[in-house]
Amino acid sequence: MQEKFYITTPIYYPSNKFTLGNCYTTVICDAVARFNRKQGKDVFYLTGTDEHGQKISQSAAKVGKTEMEYLNDIVDDAKKLWNLLGISYDKFIRTTDEYHVSAVQKIFRELYDKGYIYKGHYKGLYCTPCEAFWTESQLIDGKCPDCGREVAPQEEEAYFFKLSAFTDKLLKLYKDNPEFLQPQTRVNEMVNNFLKPGLEDLCVTRTSVKWGVPVDFDPKHTIYVWIDALSNYITALGYKSIDESLFKKFWPADVHIIGKEIVRFHAIIWPALLMALDIPLPKRVFGHGWMLFGGDKLSKSKTVGSVECIDPRVLVPRYSADAVRYILLREIPFGSDGNYTTEIFFNRFNSDLSNNYGNLVSRTFSMLKKYFASVVPEFKDDNLEASKILKDVVKNETEKVFEYMKNFDVSKSLMSIFNIFSQANKYIEMTEPWALAKDESKKQTLANVMRNLLETIRIGASLLQPFLPECATKTLRALNVGENKTYENITEFYGLKAGDVVQPLGILFPRLDIEAEFEALKNL
Ligand code: MSP
Question: Residue 22: CB within 6 Å of ligand 1?
Answer without folding.
Answer: yes
